[in-house]
Amino acid sequence: MIVIGAGMGGLATAARLAAAGHSVTVLERAPRTGGKVGSIRHDGFVFDTGPSLLTLPAVYRQLFDATGGALDDSVELIAVDPAFTYRFADGATVQVPGADPAAVAAALGGTFGAAAGSRWRSLMARASRVWSLTRGPVLDRPVTGMADLLPLARKVGDIRAVAPLTSLRRLGERTLGEPHLVTLLDRYATYTGSDPRQAPAALMTIPYVESAFGVWHVRGGVHRLAAAIADRVALTGGEIRTATPVAEILTGDGRIRGVRTATGEFLPADVVVVNADARDAYTRLLDPPGQRVAGSQVRRATSRVASFSGFSLLLGLRGRTPGHTHHTVLFPASTDAEFDQLFARWPQPLPDPTIYACTPADPLMHPPEGEAVFVLVNAPRHADHRQGVRPGTVDWRAPGVAEGYAEGLINLMAARGWPVRDRLLWWRWRSPADLADETGAPGGSIYGSASHGPQGAFLRPANRTPISGLYLVGGSTHPGGGLPLVAMSAAIVSRVVRADLAAGVRGAPAPSR
Predict the structure, then answer these.
(1) 223 burial class (0-12, 13-18, 19+ CB within 10 angstroms)?
(2) Closest CA relative to residue 485, chosen from 431, 435, 447
(3) Nearest CA to 440 among 244, 237, 272, 175?
(4) Are 59 and 44 contacting, i.e. CB atoms less than 8 angstroms apart?
(5) Which of 214, 315, 350, 468 allows an S-S link to 255, with CB 3.0 to 4.6 Å?
């Protein structure tokens, strides 16, 4: 078996399949493993350059249990409490606690009024129901079409709870009313690279999961989790080859034949799992005969609106920022203006974005008298160098664009009450162009396609493709992006591959060990 891509989805799939006795080789284009889960070190400062928090750790506990060891033997998880500090443009500030839905509602009620807290509590009770309805039938199983979603439509009350035709924004306006809470709920659309005015109401489950199961820090950084899974691949007998880009996936008679690397090496395989952006997998990697066979899935992968990217600052600061918590979110005056620009036909770097900052009080990530701050803002995708500047993208490589934007963000942080310039010991910026170069994500798109509309959220590119022996895993495929869903995607793919092999429908050899 060959797994293309050593991101979290590819590594988790490889570990599961290797633990089941299959011979697995992972081919990674970059010189390191982890994909979007990366890190940068400088003079005692350590920064996660991708996800900076972990939710729903149970799915990773299940991964490690299934592959021969306990998660806690490999990494240390630390509950983050308070989970977030939110600061709004009008000066309103609220800290929300970790794994305690009632306490979250109480904190919001204490700042925005008892009625607001009560409405948030009611919405999270509804989100709990939606989570229960969708976890098994949708998130834990392969979904290839509308027929697979029928379990959600058996009861009128269930349909009303999920509200598939209602946007997250509309849900907030109807059920919360209070403008600050609507803005807070809107933020969770960005977890899928989406516009809350077009993303489905079902994304209400994201804040529910945070408050019900907690927000977690990986001691030393989230990149240590990726390294631990890579170690698990090796321990279960898998092989990882870095700096080995795949040029083409080869097919014949509607089935997988193998892959060809960029150096021209042909590697035969009956099973190939692709942990890359689905549209890239179908349009750039898959040979033309395979593209014709997989025509419907190619159209699904390429017809969706791409998710946005991110622009980040890595700040090594002198001293500690008084009163700042592990996660801080600074909202702009108008989130509508932010989303208008993100999905504009001809966007520009956002002048007034939401600012997310992660400031871990972790001695493994900063010097004793220093502070490592990771700042992330939503950003339009980078123009693909193969196609030139196209609608929906910005040329982040154009002279002065990224540099000027980074300086502007430092000034914007000061304007929002967090001046850092005088404390800078070292800093670096990373644009969507850097993300695209380092991870292969088209334009630096973080989540593949945006979750716009019910189909965009629930009918992402399927894990099992029409090509016999070809499977897709990761954030651009079912069930979606983010660390928990990527781990679920890997669990689905490993089960499907093993079931197909057992049924003999893929023509692959039996397990080698």
Answers:
(1) buried
(2) 447
(3) 244
(4) no
(5) 468
What burial letters (b/e) apply to 140-164, b meaning 16+ CB within 10 Å?
ebbbbeeebbeebeeeeebeebbbb
Kindly state whether residues 392 and 314 are assigned to the same domain. Answer: yes
If asked whether residues 237 and 315 sit together in one domain, one would say no
Strands of 355-358's sheet, edge to edge? 93-96, 84-87, 327-330, 355-358, 370-379, 309-318, 424-430
Task: Please tell me whether residues 432 and 490 are part of one structural domain.
Answer: no
Residues 344 and 440 in one domain: yes
How far apart CA 52 and CA 386 sit, in angstroms, is: 31
Residue 93 maps to a domain: no
The label of the residue with tokens 């490993």 reads 494
Q: Of the candidates 187, 200, 192, 213, which has an alpha carbon nearest to the alpha carbon of residue 149?
A: 200
**Amino acid symbol at 358:** C
Look at residue 222 and tell me whether its pLDDT is greater than 70.
yes
pTM for the structure as a whole: 0.94
Distance CA 32, CA 38 (A): 9
Q: What percentage of the chain's residues is helix, strand, coil (to nearest 5)?
A: 40, 20, 40
Which H or E run contains 301?
Answer: helix 295-303
Region of 366 (left: φ > 0; alpha: ψ -120 to 50; beta: rest) is beta
C-alpha–C-alpha distance, residues 159 and 201, integer Å: 11
Within a domain: residue 369? yes
- Tens digits of residue pLDDT in 6-28: 999 999 999 999 999 999 999 99
Biggest CA pair distance of the chain: 66
Q: Do 408 and 479 fall within a single domain?
A: no
Side chain identity at 381, as an amino acid letter?
R
Q: Could you list the residue range(s) of the whole structural domain that residue 154 is in?
A: 102-210
Kindly report the CATH number assigned to the domain that includes residue 249: 3.50.50.60
- Domain annotation covers residue 75: no
In angstroms, the CA 212 to CA 102 distance is 9
Q: Are residues 318 and 431 in the same domain?
A: yes
Pairwise CA distance, residues 129 & 149, whole Å: 16
Instruction: State which of 190, 210, 230 marks the end of a domain.
Output: 210
Q: In this structure, how many other beta carbons lie within 10 angstroms of the beta carbon of residue 179?
A: 15
The count of domains in the chain is 3
CA distances from 168 to 123, 307, 363 (A): 12, 16, 38
Rg of the chain over Cα atoms, rounded to whole angstroms, equals: 22
Say which DSSP state 89 is in. T
Task: Based on the fold, state whether residues 283 and 356 are members of the same structural domain.
Answer: no
Instruction: Kindly state the percentage of the chain with pLDDT values over 90.
Output: 83
Range of lowest pLDDT (12-21, 78-87, 382-391, 439-448): 382-391
For 299, residues 6+ apart whose C-beta sits below 8 A from its C-beta are none
Stretch 327-334: mean pLDDT: 96
